[in-house]
Design a protein that fits this description.
Blueprint lengths: L1 H20 L7 E5 L5 E5 L3 E2 L10 E4 L3 E9 H6 L7 H12 L4 E3 L3 E2 L6 E9 L2 E11 L3 E10 L3 H12 L5
Antiparallel strand pairs: 1-2, 3-4, 4-5, 5-10, 6-8, 7-8, 8-9, 9-10
Length: 172
């Protein structure tokens, strides 16, 4: 009996060590690329959505606990509407102004000194549930790209660092 307990204990320790060494339970990274050539690395818990009503986005990815939407807008289309070419921060300020329609509580635009990523946050409710949104704005020579991550507001502290880490993987 004593020997059986010892063997079970050793097996438990061995399995625990193997799990730690192989990142057991940690989702694997998966890189997604949109038709507009924007790539992002999320976890393999995400899947491309084919839900109706999301046609305005380049891509929307859902996981069981959070989501990510990618939207690009060409610089030339904004210029045809009378806007001059902007920095990422200026474009983010314009988005905050447009999103501030009374249905959302907007945060301010900021630039992360370490990553140089321009971002803003906001909250909004849908059917009695409040959601937290973290948006990052990037730009290349032809387009602006807004990548928005969201989760339930109660989970925002749990996922904020994931959102920031995933944002660092975006490539235009």
């Amino acid at each position: 009996m004593k020997r059986t307990k010892k063997i079970i204990s050793l097996l438990f320790v061995a399995i625990s060590i193997m799990c730690l060494l192989t990142a057991c339970g940690k989702p694997a990274d998966k890189t997604f690329t949109t038709s507009t050539k924007v790539s992002i690395t999320l976890t393999d818990a995400f899947a491309l959505s084919n839900q109706d009503g999301l046609d305005d986005f380049d891509a929307v990815y859902f996981s069981p606990v959070c989501a990510c939407a990618i939207l690009t807008e060409s610089i030339s289309s904004l210029e045809s509407m009378g806007y001059e070419e902007m920095t990422e921060k200026e474009y983010a300020d314009l988005l905050v102004l447009a999103y501030n329609d009374g249905t959302r509580t907007m945060g301010s635009v900021s630039t992360n000194a370490a990553t140089n990523l321009v971002s803003f946050t906001y909250t909004a409710s849908n059917e009695g549930t409040t959601f937290y949104y973290f948006s990052v704005v990037l730009k290349d020579s032809t387009k602006y790209c807004t990548v928005t991550f969201w989760c339930e507001y109660k989970d925002k502290d749990k996922y904020q660092s994931d959102f920031e880490n995933w944002a660092k993987t975006i490539k235009l």
